[in-house]
Amino acid sequence: MEFTVGQIAGVLNGTVEGDTSLRVDRLAKIEEARAGAIAFLSNPKYEPHLYTTEASAVIVSKTLVLRQPVAAALIRVEDPYLGFTMLLEFYQQFARTGKRGVEQPSFLGQGSEVGDDGYRGAFSYIGESCHIGRGVLIFPHATIGDRCRIGDGTIIYAGAKIYADTVIGSRCVVHAGAVIGSDGFGFAPQPDGSYRPIPQIGNVVLEDNVSIGANATIDCATMGSTVIREGAKIDNLVQIAHNVEIGRHTVVAAQSGISGSTKLGDFCVLAGQVGLAGHLTLANRTTVTAQSGVGKSIKEEGQVLQGAPAFNLRDSLRANAVFRHLPELERRLSELEKAKSKSEQTEKS
Amino acid sequence: MEFTVGQIAGVLNGTVEGDTSLRVDRLAKIEEARAGAIAFLSNPKYEPHLYTTEASAVIVSKTLVLRQPVAAALIRVEDPYLGFTMLLEFYQQFARTGKRGVEQPSFLGQGSEVGDDGYRGAFSYIGESCHIGRGVLIFPHATIGDRCRIGDGTIIYAGAKIYADTVIGSRCVVHAGAVIGSDGFGFAPQPDGSYRPIPQIGNVVLEDNVSIGANATIDCATMGSTVIREGAKIDNLVQIAHNVEIGRHTVVAAQSGISGSTKLGDFCVLAGQVGLAGHLTLANRTTVTAQSGVGKSIKEEGQVLQGAPAFNLRDSLRANAVFRHLPELERRLSELEKAKSKSEQTEKS
Amino acid sequence: MEFTVGQIAGVLNGTVEGDTSLRVDRLAKIEEARAGAIAFLSNPKYEPHLYTTEASAVIVSKTLVLRQPVAAALIRVEDPYLGFTMLLEFYQQFARTGKRGVEQPSFLGQGSEVGDDGYRGAFSYIGESCHIGRGVLIFPHATIGDRCRIGDGTIIYAGAKIYADTVIGSRCVVHAGAVIGSDGFGFAPQPDGSYRPIPQIGNVVLEDNVSIGANATIDCATMGSTVIREGAKIDNLVQIAHNVEIGRHTVVAAQSGISGSTKLGDFCVLAGQVGLAGHLTLANRTTVTAQSGVGKSIKEEGQVLQGAPAFNLRDSLRANAVFRHLPELERRLSELEKAKSKSEQTEKS
């Protein structure tokens, strides 16, 4: 994927200062760029790098006044950051998600329909009676179980496993190795101490614009649906148990785990390695800091929680500050006790 | 999968009040059911829903006395919960695990034998010299390495990876993406600070009725076997290291990790995100609460542990209760010190 | 894989006492070995087992003086442990990694080159314009995206997913289900509270002799590279975020998570379930104990950290020791307060 500076300036509706025939084949930060790369300058703090960068081209503002000569070709645009972002998106689309067509061998079950303009990699598997929308990209080794529905423009990366009856909206991204729809962890204890599996017949529903990270796991509902609402972003290795609901535009960072039947509101943020107990409700805009464990429902919106067990951030920070000095605290206490004991003896004597 | 109310009543050995020709195609909770669904009423607390439910049919007790008219068809049976559970299992078996036969392309290595009445999905891989029992379901993209043995009625879901020499019992379930038999994390430090891998030549043994969650990982033993005993249930994203033993009917919830050579007794319960250090022994019926970390062996049976590092639940709850008030504790301590200092000054003066 | 005692003695350059024609087909610990196995005796503490073992053969030191008769054949060598380790490596190479050739169906994209003497399992997928070195083993269901480079002698186990543009060095091991190169978790908040994905166009670079555990996830850089340096060992289910750098010969145990842009030095050790915040720098030889959470950069080399939030190990152990006795501490404090209040009343009266 190689373009000339002139071609890029055309796409960005910019003007060139320097050699329009220079070729660039990658994007880079201005402070790290080497020959062949294009960079951008938006934050004035980085301007010194402009005069030393090895980049072949740099996107700069129309209004930038140069203080020294620049070796790189310049592409002048209204908003350099926006221009660079356009190139980034174009690049990603081209390099990662530009695939179209069907590679062989691939498997398409009876009664399944697949929309136009998509991609099915070699060894991809689509079961029976599925409905796959337009422009859906299904990478190699992805498994789509029977009776699944997937909306337009969704990307299922390599080796993602979607169990039967899953419903996935439009413009979702499911990263490699993610598992959607595995059985909930439900077992009925028997009189002899053994366990009998409770049938898990529900499914998982991802609404539109949902992102699921690599090797994350989302269990189906025991009955009904485990639901990830519109725009929610789930990171790598997150565990979402049966009958959980994740609210709109809620973000769950890597390795967090949410136990069965818990409901998160909209616009919540869970940092990494957080654990939520089962059957909780978290109000909208709840934030939980990394490695915290929440065992109680949160009714008031906009709370920030920390600790395991978690309570409000300010109190948690203060308690942790004292925790470090516990040995000193104990020493001070012992001294008071000694003093008291001594003064009592003095009184008695 | 659509049945009439009459057909279902026949299966459950029940009697119908209402239209036997009504058709239902799914199971639902009585408070959430819509037209086309069948629900059940067992707990009297839910009886009010019976008079408002949109379910097409409800399974109720033979002895239930109606207080109002009911729109749904009723199927009266001895034990409504049991009846519903039978339908659940029937449904799950039909919808999820009813597959039989061999889809193509699939791979069967030299010298491997596969019993009758099973399923091998497209792109499933069975290596050389394997012995696969009767009625085993192997979903697409599952990999079974060389010389594995799998007992009757076991289910290996999509994309599970079973390394060579693994032994799996009968009626086990291995969920999508689980990895069984990867190398133990053993490295010998060298004089220059680098590490040399210690060969890991053991295997993993799952006894009968074991369940392994999605994307869980179980390492092979360095020598000998990592063993998961009969009836143990392992949840999603659990890590089980080399040479670990998990006792009979022990339950390990999601994202817990068990370090090398640790042995869990029978009937233990680890909640989510628990960590166990290596080379420990946990007595039968030990329970560890969520996010706890256990660093010492537990010899007495039936203990409940909490915290990181973990100690007994009651003491841990009490210590945590004080932890929250540490800033206040420090303030009280400071006041006593001030008072003492003041009284000392008074005495001196 | 069956050999005679004579053959093994030949390989190890040892001398046999006993039947050279005895056949062994596996390796075992001396205290667990049964007929057909070969064991070794190095630590004198284990000598009593030599006289009771059921092993068919035991590797012992040239200088060992027997105190009782031994049933097993003996192979006498200079260093029994070294001899056994040679057998272990030979066994592992033969049983696990001895595969060569190409199974069908497998997929090789346009413009990709694969060196000699390697293995490509059935259903393995190699995209376009890849360069795969000599003696590389690619197990079934592994996905290698477009434009990847993999060095000589590297092993990619079943179902590992390598995204486009990844660079992997020589003699690396990537275990089953690992995902390398998934998108970093970067989203720009929009005015309405929703998130827009930030294009992730960087890649992942693994240098030589790196090991990646089963179902671990390594995100690509937003721009530039996420880098795992020479000899680093990453365990199962570890999460490594975008733009992270892991130093040479650094070890990260299972289920640990490293947030975006954090740099670990050389020879560091993270125990299991550790969490590191983003944008940190950890000095060389930093050790972090299990389940700890590090939120600040560590500048001094060789520190040992514990706790969440983590501080130095010694202080953390002492603070934890007091933590357990917090209820008692509070009681002692209350008693001092009561005594003070009483003495004040006495003074007043």
UniProtKB/TrEMBL annotation, chains A, B, C:
Keywords: Acyltransferase, Lipid A biosynthesis, Lipid biosynthesis, Lipid metabolism, Repeat, Transferase. SUPFAM superfamilies: Trimeric LpxA-like enzymes (SSF51161). Residues 22-89 form the UDP-3-O-[3-hydroxymyristoyl] glucosamine N-acyltransferase non-repeat region domain. It catalyses: a UDP-3-O-[(3R)-3-hydroxyacyl]-alpha-D-glucosamine + a (3R)-hydroxyacyl-[ACP] = a UDP-2-N,3-O-bis[(3R)-3-hydroxyacyl]-alpha-D-glucosamine + holo-[ACP] + H(+). Pathway: Bacterial outer membrane biogenesis; LPS lipid A biosynthesis. Catalyzes the N-acylation of UDP-3-O-acylglucosamine using 3-hydroxyacyl-ACP as the acyl donor. Is involved in the biosynthesis of lipid A, a phosphorylated glycolipid that anchors the lipopolysaccharide to the outer membrane of the cell. This is UDP-3-O-acylglucosamine N-acyltransferase. It comes from Hymenobacter koreensis.
